[in-house]
Amino acid sequence: MLSRLSFNSQKKLIIFLFVSVPLLLLLTFAYYPALELFRISFTSWDGLSPDRTWIGWDNYKEVFSNSSIFGVFKHNLAYFVVGIVQNILAIYFAVVLNSKLKGRNFFRLLLFLPYILNGVAVAYLFGYVFDTTNGSLNYLLGQLGFGALSETSWLGNGSFVNYTLASIGLWRFMGFNMVIYLAALQSIPSDLYEAASIDGANGWKQFVHITLPNIYKIIELNLFLTVTGALEVFDLPFVLTKGGPAGASETFVMKIIETAFQFNNYGLASAMSVVLLLFVVIVLSIQRFLLNRKGE
C-alpha cells in the first residue's frame, strides 16, 4: 500500500504516525487525567458513588482555610533546605572527582550507588540507623563520648524529625546530582583552565569565573529537581514515621493520599492535588525568574 504513494506522501504519513501515537498516549494518560482531576476538584465525591455533587470552590476554600491541610507545607521546608546543602556538596564532590585523583572512578561509583537503591529499602535501612535504643548512630555517638546525643530520638522529636528524614534524601540523591554536575564539568574545555593558570588565577578564581558560569544551566536543572522533590516527598516519612510524631513529619502528598483513601473525600483530595501542582509551578517560576535575572 505504501509503495503506491509518492515519496513525499510516504514521508508525511510516517511522520504523522510517529507523532500521533505518542501524542495519543500523552492525551490519554496525562492531559485527560489532569482535566478529570480538575473537574473532580469542584465536586463532593467519595470515589465510589456514581453521583458527583457540584460544590464549586468549596474544596479550594477548605484547603486554604484549614491550617491542618495547607499548613503541612511547612514540613516540606526542611527538605528544601537540605536539598540546597545537597547541591553544594554535589558540586564540591564533582569538582574534586573531576581532577586527576587516584581511584576517582571508585569514589564516583561509591557516591552514586545509593541512588540506584529502592526508596523503601533505603527507608528501612535508616530505620535501623536512627533507632533510639539499638540504632547504629546512637551507638556510635555513645562510643565517641556524646552521652546526651546518644539517647536522641531522631525520628520521634517533632523539632527536627523532618531534617532527619531529609538527611536520608541527601545521602540517597547527592550522588545523582554529582554525576550531572560531573558531566557538565567534563564538557568545559581544559584550555580555559590552562589559560587562567597562566594568568595567575588560583583554584577558587577559576571555580568562580570559569566553572560556575559554565554549569549555571545545570545548577538551574538540579535546583528544579530539588524543589520538585522537596514539595512532592512521600516515601521516606510514609515508611519511617507514618507522619508522626503527632503529624510533625506529615507531608502534603501524604495528606492528599490520606484524604482520598482514608476519608474517601476524592473531591477535596483532587483540589489539594491541583493546589500542589499550582504551588510547584509558582515556586519554579519564581526560581527560574531569579536565576535567569542573576545569570544575566
UniProtKB/TrEMBL annotation:
The keyword Transmembrane applies. It is a multi-pass membrane protein. The keyword Lipoprotein does not apply. Residues 76-287 form the ABC transmembrane type-1 domain. Keywords: Cell membrane, Membrane, Sugar transport, Transmembrane, Transmembrane helix, Transport. SUPFAM superfamilies: MetI-like. It is found in: Cell membrane. It comes from the Bacteria. The chain crosses the membrane at residues 12-32, 77-97, 109-130, 163-184, 268-291. CDD domains: TM_PBP2 (cd06261). Belongs to the binding-protein-dependent transport system permease family. This is Multiple sugar transport system permease protein. It comes from Paenibacillus harenae.
